[in-house]
Amino acid sequence: MRSRIVASALWGWVFLSRVAAQDAQLTQFYATPTYVNPAFAGTGLQTRFGLVARDQWPAIPGAFITTNFAIDHNLSELSSGLGLMVHHDRSGSGALRYTSITGQYAYEIQLKRKVFLRPALQVGWVQHAVDYSRLVFGDQLARGGTVGTYEVMDGTNIGYADMGSGLLFFTPKLWLGAALHHMNRPNQSLLLNEARIPMKFSMHGGYRITVRTPVIRKNPQSFVFAFNYKAQQKFDQLDLGMYFEREPIFFGLWYRGLPLLKRYAPGYANNDALALLVGTIIEDMRIGYSYDVTVSRLAAHSGGAHELTIGYEIASRHKRRAASKRRVVPCAKF
After folding, report:
1. What's the pLDDT score for residue 7?
2. Max CA-CA distance within the chain?
3. Residues of the chain falling short of pLDDT 70
């Protein structure tokens, strides 16, 4: 019996550490851009809201549910931006929960006319918790589902501070940014041990092409090309894609993977998903939906991933006129 308890405890430790090893990834990551980089705080016209809800691999029991809400505000008179973000993850049939609230500050430096640089910092507080009663361990299966291993486990929740930084360069058509998350490498262990979160590095950017014709003046059409590279510990990933936007609709295609540069094993290329994006623009509101078509070995079992985003921007007429003259932020919206 003792050996089964030890084995089950080890399995639980592996499960928890693997689930928590990487940050949640979003397909429509620019719908809440401050999740990607705190330097995006205040890049809207005045006040901006963003909400993302993601259900990853719904066909697999105990998969991942992610929700992210963000609000940021442009303080043009102080050349600054403020942001506030709330992030929540559930996995393992809801047994493992991760909730964070993060404050962000960015300062805007004008290098020359309509060319800007924005360094930024963020500080957050994280609550990491597990409900062992919602996990099934090996000795429970052997005893017909009766209470088992988790009774001898301590440590059901932990709180810690988390710090990050970012840098963003942009012109009216181009943007390029980099961010570091978990700079203080906080200890997230739920088993009263030490499990430091590895720092995550990301580099992201893109280019917006606006098409204007004599027929299309009020609502010009745009093609947006963007990428987001992420590296955390031994894991790295590249999101690459584009979308077409002409009010009131937009649609696009994204690819996630590093097939030519990295392989998980011989004959097993780093392919993750193709994402299809569609949405609508209703005045100052944007609603987007994306579906990830899994192309890895999980394709037959994962059920893909569904993601819904809502963005809303509030700005006075004065702010809209002033912002258009002072700077134009071309960043993707989804």
Report:
1. 36
2. 79
3. 1-22, 62, 92-94, 133-155, 213-219, 263-268, 319-328, 331-334
**Predicted pLDDT at 319:** 67
Cβ 72 vs Cβ 82: under 8 Å: yes
pLDDT at residue 286, as a whole number: 93
Domain ranges of the chain: 2-326
- Cα angle 12-135-156, degrees, rounded to a multiple of 5: 70
The one-letter code for the residue type at 119 is P
Q: How many CA atoms lie within 13 A of 57 on its CB side?
A: 21
Instruction: Give the side-chain half-sphere CA count within 13 A for 328.
Output: 12
CATH homologous superfamily of 2-326 equals: monomeric porin ompg (2.40.160.40)
pTM to 2 decimals? 0.84
What's the pLDDT at 127?
A: 94
User: Which among 299, 214, 295, 288 has a CA at the least distance from the CA of 26?
Assistant: 288
Strand pairing category for 96-107 and 268-269: unpaired
Going by C-alpha positions, the residue among 92, 67, 97 that lies closest to residue 14 is 92
Q: Report yes or no: 314 and 46 within 8 Å, Cβ to Cβ.
A: yes
List, as own/partner pairs, every contact residues 90-94 make where C-beta atoms lie below 8 angstroms and the sequence separation is at least 24, other chains included: 90/64, 90/65, 90/66, 91/19, 91/62, 91/63, 91/64, 91/65, 92/15, 92/19, 92/62, 92/134, 92/135, 93/61, 93/62, 93/134, 93/135, 94/62, 94/65, 94/131, 94/134
Per-residue pLDDT, 96: 84
CA-CA distance, 176 to 170, in Å (whole number)? Answer: 6
